[in-house]
Specification:
This protein has about 270 residues and is mainly β. The protein has helices at about 5-15, 205-220; strands spanning about 1-5, 25, 35, 60, 65-70, 75-85, 95-100, 105-115, 120-130, 130-135, 145, 150, 155, 170-180, 185-205, 225-230, 240-245, 250, 260-265. A hairpin with a 5-residue loop joins strand 14 and strand 15.
């Protein structure tokens, strides 16, 4: 995955010393009702982008420039767009984010760039109230496709993660079939499945922040996956599209009410 941060928002985060606060992107204002695309293969319709399944994709019909648009029904404050299971990197497709704050036209929120690979993407920008937001896909060498798009306001975690953490991109798990002859010779290996995973240990969370900010995320994550970045500025490529693989339960850590909690995550491999 890579995390793209607009220049203005990067300066704001640096000033507040929040450039490396871990982020969770779980809110999604994009729905099948407010979603549209310039093109869609009938076998791979635009509505698939509003589904959390990475097995169901949207696919255009040509190599031409494309827009994926979410016409938010009311003015909503947002600061991220996230995309999973796309081909923009291998297809050489430059991606940018544009927003319409007043119904009078779109302004660029995140500058155009070609992703380094096909890992999930998070685009972050200065929080802004919008009536519509869209993803601009420049013409590439392969017809563009994607499976999941989220639009919303991210959740920066209260404490940074420094040590004892395996970035999700390195927490690889492969299902392998090893071939051996009857005499014991090695004949080769076949990868029949891959995934990634990690654990996240959070400590010294204030009682008010946990109850107001983190508990709503846990309730949403019972059913829905989310995007996660452990150190967005320093290691922008080490993030993923993930889901809970345990049932996290907070523990009262200190007499002042501070809490701790451990999460286990699984994610898609690319």
């Amino acid at each position: 995955m890579s995390i793209h941060i607009s220049t203005a928002y990067a300066a704001t985060l640096a000033a507040s010393e929040q450039t490396n606060a871990p982020i969770i992107c779980y809110q999604n204002l994009l729905t099948s009702a407010n979603l549209s695309t310039d093109e869609a293969n009938t076998a791979f319709p635009a509505v698939n982008l509003a589904n959390v399944s990475t097995a169901s994709i949207w696919k255009a019909t040509t190599l031409a420039e494309q827009y994926i648009t979410s016409a938010i029904s009311t003015v909503e404050t947002v600061n991220f767009v996230a995309i999973a299971r796309h081909n923009f990197g291998t297809a050489g497709i430059a991606v940018s984010i544009e927003g319409d704050p007043d119904g009078l036209g779109f302004d660029e929120l995140v500058a155009s760039a070609i992703p380094a690979n096909d890992a999930p993407l998070i685009f972050r920008f200065t929080p802004i109230a919008l009536t519509s937001i869209r993803i601009k896909l420049a013409a590439g060498t392969v017809i563009p496709q994607a499976a999941v798009v989220y639009v919303g306001t991210d959740l920066p975690l209260q404490r940074n993660i420094y040590v004892g953490h395996t970035p999700i991109t390195y927490g690889r798990s492969n299902r392998i079939v090893n071939g051996r002859s009857e005499s014991g010779n090695f004949l080769g290996r076949i990868v029949i499945g891959s995934s990634v995973g990690t654990s996240v240990s959070l400590q010294n969370l204030t009682a008010a922040w946990y109850r107001a900010s983190f508990e709503p995320f846990l309730l949403a994550a019972k059913e829905a996956p989310f995007f996660f970045g452990w150190r967005p500025s320093t290691y922008s490529a080490e993030a993923g599209f993930a889901w809970l693989t345990n049932e996290p339960q907070p523990v009262n850590q200190r007499s002042n009410g501070m809490m701790m909690i451990d999460m286990n995550l699984g994610g898609i491999a690319t």
